[in-house]
Amino acid sequence: MKRTLLALGAVLLTAALIPASSVAQEVPIGVTSSPVISPICPTGVSQADCAIVLEQMTALQTLRDGVSSPALVHDSGELVSFTVGISAISSDKKTLASDEKFLDSAYGGPPAVQITVLRQVGAPSHERWEVAAQSSSVALQRYLGRVIQFPLTQDLPVIPGEVIALTVPTWAPVLSFDLSTSKFAYRQSRRTGCKSVTTSEQAELTLGQQAQFGCNYTGTRVEYSADEIVSPDPSAAFRSQLVF
Predict the structure, then answer these.
(1) What pLDDT score does 200 carry?
(2) How many domains does the chain have?
(3) Which member of 75, 144, 168, 185 has the greatest number of CB atoms within 10 A?
(4) 20 SS3 class
């Protein structure tokens, strides 16, 4: 009995001495002072000019609330979920149905998104990124007007230096615009035609695919973030246990 109690005491003491860095922690990526919201048209902007829809593109937030590279991964770990703010588009059912029908037809189906892990290729000034990992797509139609967290069916490994982007294989109302041009900006996965609506699929949809993110849009926030479980340092825990 005494031997059992001593062993239990050693285990408890070992656990107490394991450094905090060896305990897995959940870290938000892409979160700054402003929360992810369901986008709405700014006051005074007509429905026809309400540019809240992102079409067939991969989007990377590069500036958020004045914070540069908010989507950058700082620690090794795994993405376990992501959050998206989805606009209601319109409160009028008839207008909503009409808009959805048009967008579905023009961009290959109902609204959908997926989270994408990108790694930089070449010099930073080239803004060229390659798909390192990607989740399956999730349908958004039933979530219009809401902010939703989607758990991943399979965790995505990430390492420092990679970034988290939002990919839209069809269309998605996820853009908040008319914001401060000095505090918000994002890039799209195309290098030309930045002032026009895309007419073809330019989203990064396969592992290893590369694209130049040459189109920069200031004053706009893509409403997404991700959650990472940071890997503990197993060597630190092991060193603590060696005391016994």
Answers:
(1) 86
(2) 1
(3) 168
(4) helix
